[in-house]
Amino acid sequence: MRIDKYLKVSRIIKRRTVANEVCDAGKVMVNGKVVRASYDVKVDDVIEIDFGARAIKVKVVSTQETVRKEDAANMYTSV
């Protein structure tokens, strides 16, 4: 699954277009490397997102294509 879609499905970022723009701005790193929106997310990847004032660091647990809102937080764990 593409990282921009993963960020949207897991509800880390609400809209896919915003996730795409964040990736294009170079603010998303996976396993210590800056990635583009087309990066293929795998289980156990560590994603870091720089939102300016705060940063988020999560570890991928699952990569489901669709998930209910209540279960979205189960797709990752905080690191």
Secondary-structure map:
Elements: H1 3-9, H2 16-24, E1 28-30, E2 33-34, E3 46-50, E4 55-60, E5 76-78
Antiparallel strand pairs: 1-2, 1-3, 3-4, 4-5
Helix pairs in contact: 1-2
Q: Tell me what portion of residues adopts beta-strand conformation.
A: 15-25%
Unreliable sequence segments = none
CATH homologous superfamily heading: RNA-binding S4 domain
Q: What is the rounded Rg?
A: 11 Å
In the residues, how many domains can be counted?
1
Counted by DSSP, the helix tally is: 2
Termini Cα gap: 21 Å
- Biggest sheet strand line-up: 2-1-3-4-5
What's the total number of strands?
5
* CATH domain topology: Structural Genomics Hypothetical 15.5 Kd Protein In mrcA-pckA Intergenic Region, Chain A
What is the CATH class name? Alpha Beta
**Rounded mean pLDDT score:** 93
User: What sequence of helices (H) and strands (E) makes up the elements?
Assistant: HHEEEEE
Helix content: 10-25%
**Major sheet characteristics:** 5 strands, antiparallel
Class per helix and strand makeup: alpha+beta
